[in-house]
Every structure is written in structure tokens, then in C-alpha cells.
């Protein structure tokens, strides 16, 4: 089945058809990461201040990840909607797609799919943070482990 769609895309758009929405994807995913990491550290720090001293830092970090994902998803959701339209509808202009979305659906059109996006990103954030923080801790030389505040 995939090869039928691939052939259709190639027949209509050539090689460029396989990269439809590439710029829109970059304009979605780069800002998402740029927002995610600072908010992750912010939430981890705030949770650390509020939590009891015996609470494992990994638990707090596992909570900070989904909070950061929800924040980044909320901030970048409008561009994700534009990206999806560019890819699915075969549009070429990100700006025109954005303007059309505003004309047709107004501000609330920018919130489409936000709850699903947040729900989908939360488990990924937990797995990523636990893996990242665990590998970071395991990568330290033994003499430095106790000097770090996790």
C-alpha cells in the first residue's frame, strides 16, 4: 500500500513531494525544543523547592518533563497545525496557510488538537527525562557523583 502512495506522490510532485512541509516541520520542532529544555529545568527547580527533602530527584524530573512538554506543546501548537495543513493539503506557503487558518477559524483554530498533543507528549517526556538523567548520572566519574545536586 505504501508504494502506491509513494508512486502517486512522485508522479504528482517528484522528489520534492517527499519533502513537503520540511520547512514547516523545522519551524515547529526547533522552537519546541528551544522552549522544552528551559521549561524542563525551570519546573525541575521549582518542584525541587516544593518537594520534601527525601523525595528522589528523578521523580521530580519525571514530573518536570511532562510539564515542560505541555508548555512547549501549547506554545508551538499553532505552528504544528500549520505544518500539518502544509503536509496534508500540499500547500507551499507557511504564511498563507497560517493566514487562511486565522481567516477561516479565528484564534481558537490555533488550539485544535492541543489536548491530544499534550497527552501524547507526556509519556514520551517521562521516558526521555528518566533515560537522559539516568545516563547523565551514570556518565559521571565516581568521585564527582556526590558533588552533584540531582
Number of domains: 1
Query: How much β-strand is present in the residues?
Result: under 5%
Shape: elongated
Order of helices and strands: HHHHHH
Mean pLDDT: 91
Report Rg: 20 Å
Q: Separation of termini?
A: 49 Å
Q: Give the low-pLDDT segments.
A: none
Category by helix and strand content? mainly alpha
Biggest beta-sheet profile: none
The number of distinct helices, counting runs of at least 4 residues, comes to 6
Assign a percent range to the helix content. over 70%
Total number of β-strand segments? 0
Give structural notes:
This protein has helices at 2-13, 22-50, 57-89, 94-105, 114-139, 142-145. The chain is mainly α and 150 residues long. The chain has one domain. Helix 3 (57-89) crosses helix 5. It starts with a helix and ends in a 5-residue tail after the last helix.
Please specify the SSE layout and strand pairing.
Blueprint: H1 2-13, H2 22-50, H3 57-89, H4 94-105, H5 114-139, H6 142-145
What's the quick description here?
With 150 residues, the chain is mostly helical.
List its salient traits.
150 residues; mainly alpha; 0% strand
